[in-house]
Amino acid sequence: MARFVGSKTGSYAMRRFVLVTMENHPRGESANLDVGVEAVLEKGAQSKDPALRYHALRAMNARGGTDHMRMGERLAEDREPTVRRIALEMVARAGVRGFDPAQMAQSRDEIKRQAASVGLAELGTPAAMEALHELLTDDDPTVRAEAILQVGRRRDRSSIPFLIDRLEHESGRLKRDAWYSLTVITGKDLGLRVGSWRTFWRMEGESFVVPPWSEVVEAAARREASRESNESQVAFYGLEIISNRFALVVDTSGSMKEQVYRGKTRLDVAKEQLEATL
Prior knowledge:
Layout: H1 2-6, H2 12-21, H3 31-45, H4 50-63, H5 69-75, H6 81-93, H7 101-104, H8 110-123, H9 126-135, H10 141-154, H11 160-169, H12 172-186, H13 194-204, H14 213-230, E1 235-236, E2 239-240, E3 259-261, E4 264-265, H15 266-277
Antiparallel strand pairs: 1-2, 3-4
Helix pairs in contact: 2-4, 3-4, 4-6, 5-6, 6-8, 8-9, 8-10, 9-10, 10-12, 11-12, 11-13
């Protein structure tokens, strides 16, 4: 299998498939299997194709361990940004000398700062969280996006006021990411309204305790069930109406007298739609 992955004649799709499936073999299940998987991943990481190098590193990262750190160090200087990013994550997580996440967070290289977010969240110490919170205000939006994601993954109480600030200052996808991380940490869904989150933190922040993950999942399921039960199944011209109150405005000008279907005028069809809706 390793020879096939390293060959120049094998199809790219099949070699990629082999590397991806290596993620499904957890380390330690079988010594012989581990040897075979490691050989396949080493060949993939040595490929001239950056996509194959990426998938090999991704599998190495997923399987854990420190067997591939030398390869990770080498590919941390790869020309391909996606390869370099995942290699940096791997060595930062493993605590490889020269790849301290706190130092990487100060780098001018945005890819190193992205990877630093992952490493700092893994550490989770007060100093690491302080450095991670600083990345929430990074000039590069890709770094802020990664920091917001990792803060949510870590679920540390100290991150809540920083995420509320991001909710106020971000827009688009990053604003929603900040909201999502807040719900993941607190188990509450106060929407995108910054004022609601600030009121919550002012009233409950001093005594707030991050709930267990199981409670967060249960709360999310209850909210989803409540939304589904409150949704109207009414539709108008195929458009579902989800509000409890709504207004329909229908054109009654001369153009609505035009026949459009089996002798029916546009106005006839509109009346049918109104009757079905009401």
